[in-house]
Amino acid sequence: MGPRASGSRPVVLVFVKGLGIGGAERLISEAARFWDRDRFDYRVGYLLPWKDQLVGDLERAGVRVTMLGGKRGSDPLSGLRLRRFIRDEKVDLVHAHLPSAGILARVFSPVPVVYTEHNLVASYRRLTRELNRLTYFRNRATTAVSPEVGEAVSGYRGPKVEVIDNGVSVVVGDEEVAAVRDELGMQPGQPLVIHVGNIRPHKGHGNLVAAARWLADRGEDALLVSVGGEKYPGDLDRVRDLAREAGVEGTLRFLGRRTEARAFLAAADVVVNPSDFEGLPVSLLEAMALARPTVATAVGGVPGLIETEVSGLLVPPGDPAALGAAVVRLLGDRRLASDLGESGRRLVEARYGLAPMVRSFEELYLRVLAGSISNG
């Protein structure tokens, strides 16, 4: 690529495996509203053609989106497509999210790569983990969504990890909340417990099923609803089978992928996160921004977000009785639930805004482009 004309905007390619409805993907879609288009010319690239639910949102925001994978997703030619796109579009910097995009960008990008780690490395498959580690040194700059995530990769060869917290900006109308409760057929006064998380290993769906059984055994009439898409075909049927085998299919519903997941969070009396591993879950940030009381397992970056008894309740991972008991406590003590919800809302408003997150990334881009950051 030739030198960029003086005064022209640097071209930034935001690169991710898919644009389905996941936490990291939604962050990209939501962040686009805050991108400084006067300073940067943004593009978005992705690899999996069937994970395109957020493409329309980005395009309506005026962002050019390009699918760089093959018909079956990432294939041996994906790296060459990426390199050609960078050359043809005169891209100055690639910001890759999650390992699949990060690995490909490090190997094939002729321009600097900024990489964001969203999860604890133990949550990745072994091959992904190793390829991520082996190519990490080619990042020009590395960020993590929480100190715990940053610590997990601190031993990797490469630039020092900078923590840039996830951010959210959430507005849900009363009519959307009413529509959720109508769809679910809620009885007046019936408690609603919501979980939002895609069906992945270590996301705690089995823990949620066991907690539903614990609640049912104690006569609780709460309806539990889990919203989230499947990673592999059959995952949704599998978790529904788990609920059926536990005898809680009447009180625990798995709805699959829903574009209006935030409306379910806003409709909740309690929001739960039962995961075994987490980075900094966007769904928890959104629930707290909506002043919903939360119960979450104390894993990954979650204890850095939720101070138990102050901005939510923390329970041990893999302990459905503790999860269920915390839910019962919040349902039975509305004053406590309200106080925790308001405390969580104030925390997210003060610390986890989307605009500050975007500004931090854009300041990092400028430092990388100015050459003040090397590969370490």
Any descriptors?
16% strand, 376 residues, six-stranded parallel sheet, single chain, 41% helix, seven-stranded parallel sheet, 2 domains, alpha/beta, 13 strands
Q: Nutshell version of this structure?
A:
The chain contains 15 helices and 13 strands. It is of the alpha/beta class and 376 residues long.
Rounded mean pLDDT is 93
Radius of gyration (Å):
21 Å
Residues in helices, as a percent range? 40-55%
Per CATH, what is the topology of the largest domain?
Rossmann fold
The tally of structural domains comes to 2
Please give the largest β-sheet: 7 strands, parallel
CATH top level label of the largest domain: Alpha Beta
DSSP strand (E) fraction? 15-25%
Describe the model.
The chain is of the alpha/beta class. The chain has two domains: 11-167 and 353-369, Glycogen Phosphorylase B (Rossmann fold, 3-Layer(aba) Sandwich); 174-351, Glycogen Phosphorylase B (Rossmann fold). It is 41% helix and 16% strand. The chain has helices at 23-31, 55-60, 78-88, 99-108, 126-135, 147-152, 174-184, 205-217, 235-245, 261-267, 282-289, 302-305, 320-332, 334-351, 354-369; strands at residues 11-16, 41-46, 64-67, 93-97, 113-117, 141-144, 161-163, 192-196, 223-227, 252-256, 270-273, 294-297, 313-315. The strands form two sheets. A seven-stranded parallel sheet has the order 3-2-1-4-5-6-7, sandwiched between helices. The protein has a six-stranded parallel sheet with strand order 10-9-8-11-12-13, sandwiched between helices. Helix 12 links the parallel strand 12 (294-297) and strand 13. Helix 3 (78-88) packs across helix 4, helix 4 (99-108) packs parallel to helix 5 (126-135) and helix 8 packs across helix 13 (320-332). The longest helix has 18 residues, at 334-351. The mean pLDDT is 93.
